[in-house]
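Hey, can you fold this one?
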Amino acid sequence: MMKCIRSGIVGILVTFYIYWMVYLHSYEPTRRNKVDVITTGQQKSAPILHHVKSQYPRGKSPVGSRVVKLSEVKVASNARSNVVKTIFNKVTNDEQLVESKHSQNKDTTENPKVILYWTSFFSVSDFYQSTGDRPFKGCSKTCFATTNKSLFDKADALLIHPYEFEYEKSKLIGQKSHLLHYPHGDLPKYHPPHQRWVMYTEEPPTIMNPKNTKQFNDVFNWTITYRSDSDILNPYGQLAKKKMDFNLTKNFARGKDKLIAWFVSDCKTQSKREVIVRELQKHIPVDIFGACGSLKCPRKSEANCSRMLESRYKFYLSFENSLCVEYVTEKLWKVLKLDIIPIVLGGANYTKILPKKSFINILDFTSLDTFVNYLNLLDGNDTLYNEYFMWKKDYDFLHTYELRRSYMCSLCKKLHEDHTVKTYPNMDMWWNEKRDCVSPEIYLQNWF
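Sure. Predicted structure:
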C-alpha cells in the first residue's frame, strides 16, 4: 500500500516538474527586450541584455502562445540551455547582427565594430542604410549598424546628423514649415574615450541647422560630407573611366523640339537661381516643371519624365540652391545620365570633377546676352551640339545611391584601422557659410 502511495507521489512530482519546465520555456521569450549578440573572433561574447518589465501577462508570448502536449516534451539535461540558445538567436530584423560576416572577411579574428545611428536622417532612423550587417555587404571589414541606443556604451561610432537638433522655432518664420516635424535630437551626456562621433550631412552650410556650429567645437571626431576635406568623402555622384572602348554615332539633337527644361520645387534660394531664370525667360523659352512653374511631371513617374526630357529638350538647368565649395548635387548627376546637356550654376570647380564639354557653366559668361547667343549657336548646329556628348565614350556614371554603401564601408574600415585621437576644435570655422559659400550678388551685379 505504502509502496503504491510512494509511486503515486513520485509520479505527481515528475508530472509537476515537466509542466514547470514547459512553463519556464514558453515564458522565457517575454523576459527579453531586443537582444543583441556580438560575434567576436571565433566565439560569442556574453550577449548584451536589457531587461524590462514585461508588458505581457505572465506566461503569454508577444508572438502568440499554444498548448504544449506532454508528448512534445523531451526532458534532457541540456533542455534549458537549448531553449535559451534558441531565444538568443531570435534577433529582430532591424537589429540582426553579424553572425556570418567573419567568413567573408580577410581577417576573421577581428571584432566587428558597432555603429550606432544616434539621430535620424530627415526622420529616417537608419539613414537609408538598413541595420545589422546589411550596410556592409562586400566591405573589407566587419561592422554592424543599429538604432538601439541602449548599446551606446558598446558603440565604436555614433552617426550624427546635426540637422535634427533642436533650434529656435522663431527662426523658422517664413521658412519651410515641414522643418518643424523633424525629430528632436540630443547629444549624449558624455563622450566615451573609445568612441568616434561622426558628423554626417549632405547639405551645405547655408541650410545647416542649427546655424551656430560653434556649439559643435570639440564635439565631432570625424566628418562625412560631400567635401573632399572631410574624413570620409560622400559625393552625390561620380564618374569612372570605362574599361572598354565605346563608339558613339548617335545624333543627340535629332527629334528635339524644345530648348530648356527645369524641374524645381524650392522657389527662393541662396543662389538666387530663380532670379536668373526669370531674366533668362525674357530672352529664351524655359519650361519650368514643379512647384515653381506651370508644368507638371509627377515624381512617381520619374522614368517617364527622364525619357521626355532627353527626347524633347536640348538643355537642362542644373542650378544648385547654394553657391558653396564642392556642393554638387543630384541636380547635375542625375542629368549626366541622360542625353541632354546640363547647364550648371554652383560654387564648385566643375572642371576638376567633370570631363571637358560635358556641361555648360553659366558663370563662364560675362552676361546673359552672351550666354543666350551661345545656346542659340548650339541649337542651330548639330555638330557643335553633339560635341557635348563625346565624353560618354570614356566614362561610366555612378549615382549617389550606388555610393551610399561606399561611405559606410569607408567608415567601417576607418574604425578598424585609424586610431588617431582628434576632434574639430573649430567646427564653426571648418563648416562656415561666410568662408565656404559665395554671395550671388557678385554675378547678378555684372549681368543686370
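The CA atoms of residues 260 and 286 lie 5 Å apart. Let me know if you want another pass with a different chain boundary.
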